[in-house]
Amino acid sequence: MSTYNKKNNLILELEYFENYQYVANLLVEWQKLKPENKKLKTAAHCLAKVGIYVASLQMEQQSFEKICSQYRMDKLKYQKEALESAEKLNNYEKKYFDEKSK
Fold it and tell me: How many CA atoms lie within 13 Å of 14's alpha carbon, on the beta-carbon side?
């Protein structure tokens, strides 16, 4: 993920947390004023579910990025090993097959 995307995601995440906290605090205030209000209880419950859902999406995204990063590192490692092996084979062929043909 590019630096731009990381910064953009961080800004969006901070905005989400700020908005979530504002609404949650507002619901808490209202519930203190009207503790038996069913609509407020339902709204608080729904907001909690939204928070849990977003948190699970964020964890999933972080796991995906970590796995992709590991795959990229492994790919580069194996490409390097393959190039080194090809170079060794090429040197071996030059040393043993070119000398015999002389």
Answer: 6
Domain that holds residue 96: 3-100
Amino acid of residue 59: M
Specify the pLDDT at position 77.
Answer: 97
Q: How many domains does the chain have?
A: 1
Whole-number Å distance between alpha carbons of 70 and 64: 10
Question: Do you know the residue count of the chain?
Answer: 102
Helices (H), strands (E): how many in the chain?
A: 2, 0
| Token output for 45 | 């419950």
Whole-angstrom distance, CA of residue 61 vs CA of residue 56: 9
Q: What is the pTM of this model?
A: 0.71
